[in-house]
Write a structure and sequence with these properties.
- By secondary structure, the chain is of the alpha/beta class.
- It folds into four domains: about 30-155, Rossmann fold, CATH 3.40.50.2300; about 170-255, 2-Layer Sandwich (Beta-Lactamase); about 260-350; about 355-520, Histidine kinase-like ATPase, C-terminal domain (Heat Shock Protein 90, 2-Layer Sandwich).
- The protein has helices spanning about 40-50, 90-100, 115-120, 135-155, 170-175, 195-200, 205-210, 260-310, 320-350, 360-380, 400-415, 445-450, 475-490; strands spanning about 30-35, 55-60, 80-85, 105-110, 125-130, 180-185, 190-195, 220-225, 235-245, 250-255, 355-360, 380-385, 395, 420-430, 430-440, 490-495, 510, 520.
- The longest helix has about 50 residues, at about 260-310.
- The N and C termini lie far apart (about 90 Å).
- Residues about 1-25, about 160-170 and about 455-465 have low confidence and may be disordered.
Length: about 525
């Protein structure tokens, strides 16, 4: 007569040999999960499974860093835990596996130290073997013997009353773990709940044990809402696995309170939704402004230009012609202001996508100056560009850079004095490209004018014009747009204003581009 080793939960039976005499069948394959980071130990077990020297065996592997989750899958016949030299963390992990793991024998694998072996057995291990002293075959046979002892200990007559000790599982580590653990019987009735589970469920152990769980009890992962007696709702992620508890089939439910995280995610989602709605309203608003303002302004500018140029014939009175010219100039200024406002709003909404291309900054400056020369001549200001022949290239958005330089020069013309010269200097300093705009004036003329003018500090008043002041406002529409273009390119814009009591001081505006945008 013999016994056949089977997986947990399957009864063992007597078998007969082919000749009619009583004898054992060949042992069934046992699945052993090994927790070890040792590649050598893993290779030895893999070779043992292939050789079959200890009977049919198959192995799975994980490390202590992966926790006990890999050990909770069904079908594990035995566990082999590598505790090495018996450190505190290794023994704590061994105890946790024995308390929370599957109903399977646990064999400790460690150094051949009698004290370590005693500590492993005291922690609840079936045996403690040494991979250094025992051969892989002897380790495999020890695992098979441990499974056989466990199966024999669980096999008892149907009429035998269960012992009090068998019905009283060890729950010390389960109770102390910070995870919320609930153990259910096959009917979904709560048999145990640790303190963390009592906290999340809002009930004491006396109120929970012996009552239906009230939540899904099928194995797998679930998102659940827990309604506590105090009316508070908790959101939890729950994982349920099959196990054995006190020698009978049971299920372990591990709950993770995610109430705060879910509420935060909901708040972030609602904020993103509101942001998108605000963005759409802004887009619609700026689109309407663009259409509603540009259309009548285009008509005003076009018709006033026809009138001042008398394209349809003489207007009859020179004053009407002057009025038409004023209307044309004011309309053009207003259109430029609207374009600046829309440009700044577009930039603030992060809608500007830069096109990275290699730009000739000197050429862009020449284009911007050429487009402003007529305006400068009308204001009595001259413009000159100073650029070296071999200025490195600049990686950036040519259209945005040209727009920024155009607005910069327009602001400088507005603030410059009649008879002055605006000098736009491009160069390289410390491997960075810079653009410097200066107003150049005769110091004698400056001194004569300053003696007759009020203090320039009044220019900080937003209701005082910066025209003919040599003191551009840093927050003006034109400079705000240019500054935004520089920020998009990772650069900076600095303004130096003229001072009344320093005749040599003049308006100066510096643009500096970062080194990583210079192309050599």
């Amino acid at each position: 007569m013999g016994l056949t080793l089977v997986r947990p939960g399957t009864a063992m039976s007597r078998t007969s040999s082919p000749d009619g005499t009583s004898g054992p069948l060949a042992p069934s394959a046992l699945f052993t999960h090994v927790v070890s980071a040792s590649q050598r130990l893993r290779a030895n077990f893999t070779a043992l499974a292939a050789s079959g020297e200890a009977g049919p065996l198959c192995f799975g592997f994980s490390t202590t860093e992966e926790g006990i989750d890999p050990l909770l899958h069904p079908g594990i016949d035995a566990l082999a835990i590598d505790i090495g030299d018996g450190g505190v963390a290794a023994l704590d992990f061994l105890r946790r596996v024995i308390a929370l793991g599957p109903n399977a024998p646990v064999i400790a694998l460690g150094a051949g130290d009698p004290l370590l072996q005693a500590a492993a057995l005291e922690a609840g291990a079936e045996d403690c073997l040494s991979p250094e002293m025992d051969t892989p075959t002897s380790l495999g046979l020890a695992i098979r013997r441990a499974v056989m002892r466990r199966n024999l200990s669980e096999e008892r007559p149907a009429d035998a009353a269960p012992s009090e000790e068998a019905d009283k599982p060890h729950v010390t580590l389960v109770q102390e773990t910070p995870e919320a653990i609930v153990i259910l019987d096959s009917q979904g009735v709560i048999r145990f709940a640790n303190s963390a589970a009592q906290d999340i469920l809002g009930r004491s152990s006396d109120d929970l044990v012996g009552r239906p769980f009230g939540l899904p009890s099928e194995p797998g992962e679930h998102d659940v809402t827990i309604t506590r007696p105090d009316g508070d709702n908790r959101l939890a992620e729950m994982r349920i696995v099959d196990t054995r508890w006190g020698g009978v089939p049971a299920r372990v439910a591990a709950l993770n309170d995610v109430t705060v995280r879910r509420k935060l995610e909901q708040t972030m989602h609602e904020a993103e939704t509101r942001s998108q709605e605000t963005y759409k309203r802004n887009q619609s608003f700026f689109s309407n402004v663009n259409h509603d303002l540009r259309t009548p302004l285009t008509h005003i500018i076009g018709f006033s230009e026809m009138m001042k140029n008398e394209r349809l014939g003489p207007m009859g009175t020179d004053r009407y012609k002057e009025y038409a010219s004023d209307i044309y100039s004011s309309g053009t200024v207003l259109l430029d202001m609207i374009e600046d406002l829309l440009g700044i709003a577009e930039a603030e909404m992060h809608e500007i996508d830069l096109t990275d291309e290699i730009c000739n900054l000197g050429q862009l400056a020449e284009i911007a100056v050429a487009s402003q020369k007529q305006h400068a001549a009308e204001e009595g200001v001259s413009i000159e560009v100073v650029c070296p022949d071999r200025l490195p290239g600049l990686r950036g958005d040519a259209r945005r850079l040209r727009q920024g330089l155009f607005r910069l020069i327009a602001e400088a013309i507005h603030c410059a004095h009649r008879g002055s010269t605006i000098r736009l200097t491009l160069g390289e300093d410390n491997r960075r490209i810079y653009v410097r705009l200066n107003e150049v004036r005769d110091p004698k003329v400056i001194q004569m004018e300053l003696n007759a003018l009020t203090d320039f500090e009044t220019i900080d008043d937003p209701f005082v014009s910066a025209e003919d002041s040599s003191a551009p406002r840093e927050e003006s529409l034109a400079l705000s747009l240019t500054r935004k273009v520089m920020e998009l390119h990772g650069g900076s814009l600095d303004v130096v204003r003229a001072h009344k009591h320093t005749p040599d001081s003049n308006m100066s505006i510096d643009l500096h581009f970062p080194e990583n945008r210079v192309v050599r």
